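Subject: Sanity check before I submit

Could someone independently write out the C-alpha cells for this chain? I want to compare against mine line by line before I put it in a report. The sequence has 495 residues.
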Amino acid sequence: MSLDRQKILESVPQKGFFGHPRGLFTLFFTEFWERFSYYGMKGLLIYYMYDQLKNGGLGLDTDTAASIASIYGALVYMSGIIGGWISDRILGSARTVFYGGVLIMLGHIALAIPGGMTTLIISMILIVAGTALLKPSAATTVGELYSANDERRDSGFSIYYMAVNFGALVAPLVVGTVGQTYNYHLGFSIAAVGMFFGLVMFVATKKKALGLAGVYAPNPLSGDEKVKVFTRIGISTAILIILLAITIPTHILTLNRFIMIITVLGIVIPLWYFIMMYFSKKTSAEERARILAYIPLFIGAVVFWAIEEQGATLLAIYADKRTQLHYAGIKILPSWFQTLNPLFIVIIAPILAWLWVKLGKKQPSTPIKFSFGLIFAGLSFIVMMIPAYINDTNTLVSPLWLVLSYFLVVIGELCLSPVGLSVSTKLAPAAFSAQMISLWNLSDASAQTINAQIIKLFDHHEVAYFGGVGIVSVILGILLIALSPMIKKLMRGVH
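---
Independent answer below. Compare away.
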C-alpha cells in the first residue's frame, strides 16, 4: 500500500521538540536507549568473555575474545542491508523499529542469564538481528518527518545523531560500573532494561507523535513477489539449519573457521557491490568515473575504521591489563575508557562544524578530509608506541596515553565519518543510491573482519603492532593527498 507523501507530513505534528516535529522526540529517546543498551553491553562484553570463570566470566583467551567482539560488530553492520530491505519491502520503518527493539531486549536478557557460551551465542544472534532491523529503520523514519526542502531537516538529523553519542557516553559508566563492580550478568540486565525503556517510549508516543510516518512500506512486495521471496527465504533457512546441524557437532565448522568465513565475506561483499554497480547497464559513464573515485575513499575508510573499532577491543584490553587504574586518587574501571570516544565527539563536533562553515569554499576537499582522518587515526596508534617502548610489558602505564589516543582518533573520525556518509550519497549512481549507503556501512564491517585476524598479532609485539598499523594509516593518508587531484577529477564536479 502506498501513501501520498503529503498526507504523511500532514499527519505528523510539526512542532513539539525544540521547534522540530514531535516525532523527533520519540525517535531521539528510542535511539538513545537503544544505543545505551548496545554500548553498555559492548563496553562490558570483552571483559566478560576473557575474565576467569571464578569471577563470572567465560574464561576465553584474549585473542579469541577480541576476534569474537570484532566479528560481532561486523555482523551488526553487514546485517543492516537485510534490515533496510525488510523495512522498505515488507513492514515499514515503524514496525521494523519495534520488532528490532524487542529482539535487542531479548538478546540482552539472554546475556543476563548465566548460561555460558550458549546464551552468548543466542544473545549475539538476537542483537545482530534486532540492530539490523532497528538502526536503519529509525533513521529512515526521521527522514519521513520532514519534507525534502524543509530547512530543519539537517538540524533534525544532527539532533537525532546526538542521541547516539549521549547513549554511548552514559552507558559504560552505568552498565560497565555495575558489571565490573558487582556482577557481569547484572550489568547486562541493565542494558536490557535500557532497551525496555526505549520500547515503552516508542509505543507510548508513536501514535500521536509519528502519525503515519513509517507506517507503510515505501516499496511493498506484490502478491507474486511475496510467494517467491518467502519461498526462497524458507528454503535458504532450511539449508542453513541443516548445514549447521551437520557441521557444528562434527567440528567441521569451528569458531576459528566461522571467523574466517565472515572475514572473507567482509571483503567479498563490498567487492561484489563495486563490480555490480560499475558494470550495470543502469550506470552511466559519468557515474562509473565517480565509482572509481569512491574506491580509494572506501579503502581509506576501511583502514580508518580498523583503528577506530579497536578502541572497544584492543584498547579495552590494554586499559584492563596495561594501564594504571588508580590516578589522582581516583579508582578507574577499564570500561570507563569507552566513554572517551562519545565524550570527545560531543565536545569537538560543534567546533569542527563551525570551522567548515567558517572556511566555506576554502575548506578542504573530500579526499583531503579523508586523508586528515587517516593521519589522525594513524597518530592515535603511533603515540601508543611510546609507553610500549619506554616500559616493559609488566609495567603499568599512565591512563593519559589512552586518553590521548582516543582524542586523536576522534578528530580523525569527525574529519572522515560525516564526510564519508555525505560523499556516498553524492557519488552514488542514481539507480543504486540506497546500495551506496549500504556499501559505506560495509566499510566498517570489512574493517572489523580484518581486525578479527590482525588483532592476534598484538601479544608481546606492542611497539611493532601499534607502529605498523599506525604508519600504514598515515602513509595511506599522505597517498590520498597525492591522489586527490585525480580523485577530484573522477568525482565529476562533486565536492
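---
OP: Matches mine. For the report I'm noting this point. The longest helix spans residues 62-91.
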